[in-house]
Each structure stands twice: as C-alpha cells, then as structure tokens.
UniProtKB/TrEMBL annotation:
Keywords: Membrane, Transmembrane, Transmembrane helix. Residues 142-241 form the CAAX prenyl protease 2/Lysostaphin resistance protein A-like domain. This is Lysostaphin resistance A-like protein. The chain crosses the membrane at residues 16-40, 66-87, 107-127, 139-157, 177-196, 208-224, 267-286. InterPro entries: Rce1/LyrA-like_dom (IPR003675).
Amino acid sequence: MFLEQGIKPENDFWKYLLGSVFIIAASFIGQIPLSAAVLYKSFVENKPFPTTDEEVMKMFESNMTLFLVMISFVFAFVGIYFVVKYIHHQTILSITTSRTKVDWKRIWFSFFLWSLFSIVSFLFVYLKSPEHFVFNFNLIPFLILIVIASLLIPIQTSTEEYVFRGYLMQGFANLSYNRWFPLLMTSVIFGTMHIFNPEVAKMGKIIMVYYIGTGLFLGIITLMDEGMELALGFHAANNLVGALLVTSDWTVFQTHSIFIDRSEPSAGLDVILPVLIIYPILLFIFSRKYGWKNWKEKLSGNINKFENHVKFKS
C-alpha cells in the first residue's frame, strides 16, 4: 500500500519538517544563478534593480527566464533524493509507487490524455473567439523553448508531485490513522502554495478553488492507483502544453508560445468547470482503465500502521 510505505517507527513527523526545510533550502540554492543574473544586469549593465517578481520575470529574454527559474527545481529534486535516502532511509521508488517499479505506461497515458484534452479545449476556445488570441510563432525561439521546456518542466512538475503526493502524503500519514487527512492536508497546502501567482491577483481568490481542487484530484488518483504515476503524467502535460501552446501577460511565465491570449481574465466557468466536471470525467476514465474499486476505503479508510511488509533499502 502506497501510504504505508512511509510508515515506520522511526519516521517521526519532525523528520518531515526537517526534510521540508532541507528541500526548501536546496531550492533557494538553486535560485543563486537567477539572483546572480539579476545582479549582473543591475550593476554591470546598469539596468534598474527589480523590486517585484513580475519585474524579475521581465528582466530577461523569456527563454532565459524560464531556464533560470526552472534550475531551482533541479536542486530541489536533488534535495528530495537526499532527504528520502539519508533522513528517512527509504528509496525514491517507495515515495513514487507501491509497484515493484515505476509504471511508465501509466505516466504516458495520463500525459497524452491530458495533453489531448488541453489542445482540443484550446482549439474550441480559439475557434469561438479568435479575436482574443495573437499568433506568436517564431521558429528559432520556439525550438529553443521546446528544448528547455521539455527538459526542465517535467523536473519542475515532478518535484512538486514528489513533495506533495509522495513525501508529504506519506508524512501526514504518519500523523493520522485515516487516509482522508493526508489527502486533505496536501491538497490545501498545494493549493495555497499558488496564492502569490499573478493569476490570483488578476482573477481573485476564487481561483484557489481551482488550485486546491487540482491538488485534491491529484491526491485522489494517487491514493486510488496506489502510486503517483498518473499524477506525474497529468502535471507534466498541464504545464508543458501550457508553456508551448499559449501564454498571456498575466500568467506566471511568458514564453515564446504559439499563441498569446490577449483576453481579460475572469473567474468563471474556467475555474469551476475542471473541478466539477472535467476532473470527475478523468477519474471515471482512469477508474475504468485501471479497475479501481473500494473508493471509500482507499480515500477515507484507516491507515494500517502495524502490518507494513515493505522492505526498504538504505
């Protein structure tokens, strides 16, 4: 069982707090190249020193910005590996899946399913209101974007999944006897982590319904499937397709995407629709494909803390 793989007598919750601090510190170290680039621009090239995140994001060519920002997730991922191996004496596999090895077919199925849906839904919106979009395709910058995004965005999304659906999901399981607690806690923390995104300032706090709802969806598919392969594929597709297909002035990243969205954002159906309709449809598809059963037990049943037969390699 996936949650039970992290339940060990020596896995006190303070170790997860310590591990989280270590991962955050590793992420901060990964931000040194960005900070150094900002200082170089300011003091060597005499550019105005940025005082907001938005100004930092616009200080460099967008491909360079994406590269510098994503580097921090490489360091954070290394931090996760260190914490899991040396603080908790587990393997990366143990916080990835309950299977004997990572099921890449699950990752790719989820990736292509959500990529297809994202592209089709964009085409629907584009054909309905083409005046809201500007064709932005520029071959060389776009090819560079493909390389950077394909290499680093999966690392970024995987890092987030390993932190929330893997490491912290099992961490909160050590605190609780019921499976709903780690599911709820990781979903809320994942959602509130996005509270400083420009989208929140532009669309209002109602968009937190989408962020927390997405965290809940990713947590549900992780618990139902006894591993986070489906969550890894979904998250990578969501961010990668977004970076390549369409961007706007009010999103976290502005990239050399194929289209630019010039419409004024509003929190409406685009916030509620995924949580109430699209995600349940995806849950139905996954459940039929992978034969999920015992929903109540897997999502809100008791956590077995006394019969963990998983053997860890230190």
